[in-house]
Amino acid sequence: MNKAILSAAMAGSLCLMAGCKTSDGSDWVKDETPRSAAQQDYAECKYQAETATATIGTNDRPKTMTDAIGDGIGDGIVKGMEQSDLIKDCMRARGYNQS
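Predicted structure:
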């Protein structure tokens, strides 16, 4: 099995067990702003966060499969936490609050 697929599956499973929250932007509100605009702004912030964190873990060369799995899970967690913070900062900078 491809190491990247295995690592992604493990990170996703870990996220589900930990209760990671996903959003479509509907929990962000701003006075007089329609939900569709909030969702569009959220999508833009999410894209920017994904772009900013795209290189996390790309310079690693694990020596064993166990190292690769551990690195993949760790990198996935770090990337997810960083993206979450970046999205929150971006949405707040646009004047939104979480409901």
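Summary: The CA atoms of residues 73 and 99 lie 30 Å apart.
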